[in-house]
């Protein structure tokens, strides 16, 4: 037995405007999961986090799996693979996206760059090319700027960016995500769910009071609609500029037992409950490219640690 937990996370399975996938994402994901099943012990996320907090041992090479945002292909493509391999997983959901009252700004921006009618645009004092690899890099730069804005400021900035890019067609971003019926299907099929905030805001950019309110509303709505306890939150983006001490305190105030960042690393008994670490992966990339080789190498070294 051991006292360490590796948490692996994904977003999508197949291509979206924000997360392009080369080849078959579902085949890549299945290959990743089959390899993990050979070298690790896949455990339910929340049960493992509870055990760490209580000082209880975990199985050797313990790994937990999760998905963020509630993309529709999580249910349609990832879940059948998980069921075939008999692996538990947790899905972190955004009530605003489930209800259709919020839009995934990162997907809207990705569409606007991909379908821009212009070769380059000026936006907020910087020039952004739109074609080819340079356009993809420019989208990343624009997303980084949007990510660290308040929700209110981002809405204005995104509208300006889309107007400048003058994209063709419609993004269809709403079709990328689950609705409440899809979320209930995840629960019905035996998978765990958690909160990914109410509106997918960058929490640390909001006031402490707004952070508590957002996290509280998300937890309460998910519990009411899905009839399951919501005890864990995965902070959107999860980097240092998205998760502050106030954010972690807000999660505790809102009633969460666990909070997860995207800080690369492993979790042990001393890991703060509101600051868990995760390793985020792409479904179509090899283990070396995603950093998963570091994970599987470490898991092999732990084979004799139990």
UniProtKB/TrEMBL annotation:
Any one Pfam family match given in the protein's UniProt record, by short name: Polysacc_deac_1
InterPro entries for this protein: Glyco_hydro/deAcase_b/a-brl (IPR011330), NODB_dom (IPR002509), Polysacch_Deacetylase (IPR051398)
CDD domains: CE4_NodB_like_5s_6s (cd10918)
Catalytic activity, EC: 3.-.-.-
Keywords, alphabetical: Hydrolase, Signal
Domain NodB homology span(s) in chain numbering: 61-306
GO molecular function term, any single one: hydrolase activity
Gene3D superfamilies: Glycoside hydrolase/deacetylase
The keyword Transport belongs to this UniProt entry's keyword annotation: no
Residue ranges the record marks as coiled coil: none
Protein name in the entry: Polysaccharide deacetylase family protein
Organism the protein comes from: Planomonospora corallina
Taxon lineage: Bacteria, Bacillati, Actinomycetota, Actinomycetes, Streptosporangiales
């Amino acid at each position: 037995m051991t006292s360490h937990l590796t948490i692996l996370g994904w977003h999508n399975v197949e291509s979206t405007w924000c997360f392009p996938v080369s080849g078959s994402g579902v085949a890549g994901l299945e290959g990743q999961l089959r390899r993990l099943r050979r070298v690790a012990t896949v455990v339910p996320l929340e049960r493992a986090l509870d055990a760490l907090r209580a000082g209880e041992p975990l199985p050797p090479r313990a790994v937990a799996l999760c998905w963020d945002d509630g993309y529709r292909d999580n249910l349609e493509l990832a879940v059948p693979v998980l069921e075939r391999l008999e692996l538990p997983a947790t899905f972190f959901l955004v009530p605003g996206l489930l209800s259709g009252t919020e839009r995934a700004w990162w997907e809207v921006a990705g569409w606007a760059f991909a379908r821009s009618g212009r070769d380059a645009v000026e936006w907020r004092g910087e020039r952004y090319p739109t074609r080819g690899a340079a356009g993809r890099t420019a989208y990343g730069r624009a997303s980084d700027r949007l990510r660290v804005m308040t929700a209110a400021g981002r809405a204005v900035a995104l509208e300006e960016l889309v107007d400048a890019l003058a994209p063709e067609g419609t993004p269809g971003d709403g079709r990328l995500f689950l609705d409440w019926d899809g979320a209930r299907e995840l629960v019905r099929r035996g998978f765990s769910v958690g909160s990914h905030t109410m509106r997918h805001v960058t929490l640390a950019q909001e006031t402490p009071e707004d952070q508590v309110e957002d996290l509280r509303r998300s937890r309460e709505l998910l519990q009411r609609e899905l009839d399951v306890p919501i005890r864990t939150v995965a902070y959107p983006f999860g980097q240092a500029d998205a998760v502050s001490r106030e954010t972690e305190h807000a999660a505790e105030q809102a009633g969460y037992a666990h909070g997860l960042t995207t800080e690369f690393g492993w979790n042990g008994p001393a890991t703060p409950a509101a600051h868990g670490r995760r390793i985020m992966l792409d479904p179509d990339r090899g283990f070396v490219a995603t950093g998963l080789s570091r994970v599987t190498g470490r898991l092999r070294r732990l084979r004799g640690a139990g």
